[in-house]
Design a protein that fits this description.
The protein is globular, with a radius of gyration of 19 Å. The protein has a three-stranded antiparallel beta sheet with strand order 2-1-3, sandwiched between helices. The protein starts with a helix and ends with a helix. α3 packs antiparallel against α5. The model is unreliable at about 1-30 (pLDDT under 50). It has about 250 residues and is mainly alpha-helical. The chain has one domain: minor pseudopilin epsh fold (3-Layer(bab) Sandwich). The protein is about 45% helix and about 10% strand. The structure holds fe (ii) ion. Fe (ii) ion binds near residues 79 and 215.
Length: about 250
């Protein structure tokens, strides 16, 4: 009887889940930092099928206390990976298999819904992780993006308030973005589901500079339904050097 119960436990979803988390979790101490992700991680022009899960720049426990370990583990190891796997399955054998990620996005309105959702889910999450770094007590916004933020939003605090307000106003799941539109102006937009501002049907299009995941899986374990608290904590993790680098890139 005891043996039967033990075998049942070994085959249970709970045990298999715990096993997979143990195998996938980077075994590093808090504060460890991997080599930072380079621009190739998010360059949509150079990425093609088959896609792979990009590594994180940090251990899954390194964003505490602003994003707890369990949230990062679930989000990255299971959800982001699922988007990668499902994108590859959805593209396999289709005419879109040879398209770059950029080509998929600018043809977003023509894509089968599953490919559009999985391509967005893959890249949006890669970009989200790319924008994050270890918590530091003071995060100053570097030049020249600081001056542009002040020009377009009045102040850095004004920008953060606007970003949070847009995030709170998004009904359901999606993303909030800081983008640079075609005129060079900085704009805050939200997109539903796994859409992004590079997709051809997006009402406001532009170059993403920063994003925050507003799906409940990104924060519910730690912040429950308090999306605003999650956004407040998010500012402690933003890698402003990366945002500034994207802002100044001409390629
Ligand atoms: Fe997510």
């Amino acid at each position: 009887m005891k043996k039967a119960l033990f075998v049942t436990f070994l085959l249970s979803p709970l045990f298999l889940f715990a096993q997979s988390m143990h195998q996938l979790q980077p075994q590093l101490a808090v504060g460890s930092l991997f080599p930072p992700l380079d621009f190739k991680t998010i360059d949509t022009r150079s990425q093609h099928y088959p896609f792979s899960l990009p590594p994180l720049s940090f251990a899954t426990n390194a964003l505490n206390p602003y994003l707890d370990t369990k949230t990062v583990e679930l989000h990255y190891n299971l959800l982001h990976k699922a988007y990668v796997d499902n994108l590859n399955k959805a593209l396999s054998g289709t005419p879109w298999e040879k398209s770059s990620l950029k080509e998929l996005f600018i043809n977003g309105s023509k894509l089968p819904v599953k490919i559009k959702n999985m391509a967005g889910g893959y890249w949006n999450h890669s970009f989200y992780w790319y924008c994050l770094t270890l918590p530091t007590p003071i995060k100053t916004v570097p030049e020249p993006i600081s001056s542009s933020i002040i020009k377009d939003f009045g102040s850095v605090e004004g920008f953060k308030n606007h970003f949070k307000e847009e995030a709170l106003n998004l009904f359901g799941s999606g993303w909030v973005w800081l983008i640079q539109d075609k005129t060079g102006k900085l704009v805050i937009v939200t997109t539903p589901n796994q859409d992004n501002p590079m997709m051809d049907f997006s009402p406001v299009q532009g170059k993403p500079l920063l994003t925050c995941d507003l799906w409940e899986h990104a924060y519910y374990l730690q912040y429950q339904n308090h999306r605003g608290d999650y956004i407040d904590a998010f500012w402690n993790l933003v890698d402003w050097d990366k945002v500034n680098d994207l802002f100044t890139r001409k390629d």
